[in-house]
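User: I'm writing a tutorial on reading structure tokens. Could you give me a worked example: one chain, its sequence, then its tokens, then a sentence or two explaining what the tokens reveal?
Assistant: Sure. Here is the example chain.
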Amino acid sequence: MVRERYLTVWSSLALWHTLEATMTASVMETTQYLTFKLGDEVFALDITKVREVLDFTTVTKVPRTPAFMRGVINLRGSVVPVVDLRLKFGMARTENSVNTCIIITEVTVDGETTVLGALADSVQEVLDLETGSIAPAPRIGTKLRTEFIKGMGKRDDRFIILLDIDKVFSSDELAMVRADKSDAGDQDAPERI
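And here are its predicted structure tokens:
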């Protein structure tokens, strides 16, 4: 009889620990991020915003566009604008290499979704980050815009800059990208880069 009680208590305790571990695991939410490099820095996008990753291909330059707007590509019959995130972030222009790729992503601003390609020096990996391993975005005074930084992920001894792709571009910039996308078919002799 004592042994039966002991087994019942032991079973109940084991069940409690299992339930507690399950509840703790569900509280520690994880999100998957696609990590990529721009220069020496590692950035990441929420994987739900990424459609696919392409090898670098010919980009058709569209006249009178901002410097960060590299042009457009043909993606299975659709015209997709390509932006250079290095230029957008005030870095040197992305140089084409074996590892250069185009991350096809969906950007939503003011309720309107735009598909665009973002040039990256290289794609690293898909990474699971727990909410607890993400530090808030740094505050760097009032003159610098940092609202496009969702947070700073920690991996080993390095930080990963988590981007909120919906806040990287202003609505005016995206309107220009959409206009350039529609104008791309009207060009006679596009310059290729």
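What the tokens reveal: The radius of gyration is 23 Å. The chain has one domain: 29-192.
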